[in-house]
Each structure stands twice: as structure tokens, then as C-alpha cells.
Structure to design on (183 residues):
């Protein structure tokens, strides 16, 4: 629920739902589920621009999964740290975290992990004005997202590609990218 509310543009409601879930997971004594609850809390806080608390929640999650030697989950959290860093304007940290997410995606080879990491690598490269790398990573993410029907990753990739085209001085291609999002 917390994730759906965040994606629907309701970060305060998302935060409240994540806090409720976190309380339940802590009562149950499930460290893994607590980590997941902290991820959604960290994302809701980051979406609201609450920098310190969002970092604390995501780093706590990372410690849980590192301690459990859950490489796939560590990569999952790394990509959310990258997303948080991008939202807060820290492209260098975003690049580092997205690269870590990409490396760890190879553990269990979940397609969503690869797509999200590639998109975030591309968005971080775009923010750092590394346009050729941004182009490669964003097209890679979009192609993989479409191949396995990950619509939740397709739209952010299209938006980032539109921004890439705009920066390259090609507003027509930028509009075409956004137009493809409606299909």
C-alpha cells in the first residue's frame, strides 16, 4: 500500500502506511520484513524531501540485508538509495548506488533489478552530463522493461530519454519520447 500511495503521488499517506507496516513487522519479529518496511518508509520520506530520515531508513535497511547476506536485497536497496540521491540532487552518490545495484542484480537475476539499476545509472549519468552513457543505459532499461512488460519502469525511462534528447538540442525527439508514453 505504501508503494502504491507513493507512486500515486501521495507521499504523506505512503509514509503513514509504511509506518503502520513497519510496526506490524517489528511486532512479528521479522527482520527481513522490517527491512522492506524501512525501504518504503525511506522512499516516502525521500519523495517528501526529508533527507536525513530517508537516508537513515534506507541505510538501516541496507545493514539488515548485508547482515543477512542477502545480496539481491542489498542491490534492491542500493537502487532505492540511488533514486533518493537523484531526488535530492546528489548525482555522484546516485551513480555509485546505481552501479552497486547493477552489480548485485546478477545475484538472483531478477529482471526488475536489472531494469531499475540500468535506468538509474542512466538518470545519474544524465545528471552528471555523461550523455553517451546516459543514452546507452536508458535505452537498455527501456528495451528490457518493454521486453518483460515492466510498465512501472518504462515511463521513467521514457521521461529520462526525453530529457536526454532535449539536452542534445533535439526537442522533436524529446516530444516523440513523451508521446510514446501514452501508447
Amino acid at each position: 500500500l505504501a508503494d502504491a500511495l507513493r507512486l500515486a503521488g501521495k507521499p504523506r499517506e505512503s509514509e503513514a502506511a509504511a509506518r503502520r507496516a513497519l510496526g506490524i513487522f517489528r511486532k512479528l519479529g521479522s527482520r527481513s520484513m522490517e527491512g522492506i518496511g524501512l525501504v518504503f518508509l525511506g522512499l516516502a520520506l525521500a519523495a517528501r524531501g526529508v533527507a536525513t530520515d530517508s537516508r537513515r531508513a534506507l541505510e538501516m535497511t541496507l545493514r539488515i540485508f548485508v547482515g543477512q547476506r542477502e545480496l539481491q536485497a542489498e542491490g534492491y536497496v542500493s537502487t532505492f538509495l540511488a533514486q533518493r540521491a537523484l531526488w535530492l540532487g546528489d548525482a555522484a552518490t546516485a551513480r555509485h548506488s546505481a552501479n552497486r545495484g547493477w552489480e548485485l542484480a546478477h545475484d538472483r537475476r531478477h529482471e526488475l533489478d536489472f531494469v531499475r539499476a540500468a535506468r538509474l545509472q542512466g538518470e545519474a549519468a544524465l545528471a552528471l552530463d555523461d550523455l553517451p552513457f546516459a543514452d546507452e543505459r536508458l535505452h537498455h532499461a527501456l528495451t528490457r522493461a518493454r521486453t518483460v512488460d515492466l510498465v512501472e519502469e518504462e515511463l521513467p525511462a521514457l521521461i529520462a530519454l526525453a530529457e536526454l534528447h532535449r539536452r542534445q538540442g533535439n526537442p522533436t525527439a524529446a516530444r516523440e519520447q513523451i508521446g510514446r508514453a501514452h501508447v
About this structure: The CA atoms of residues 91 and 127 lie 6 Å apart. DSSP finds ten helices and no strands in the chain.
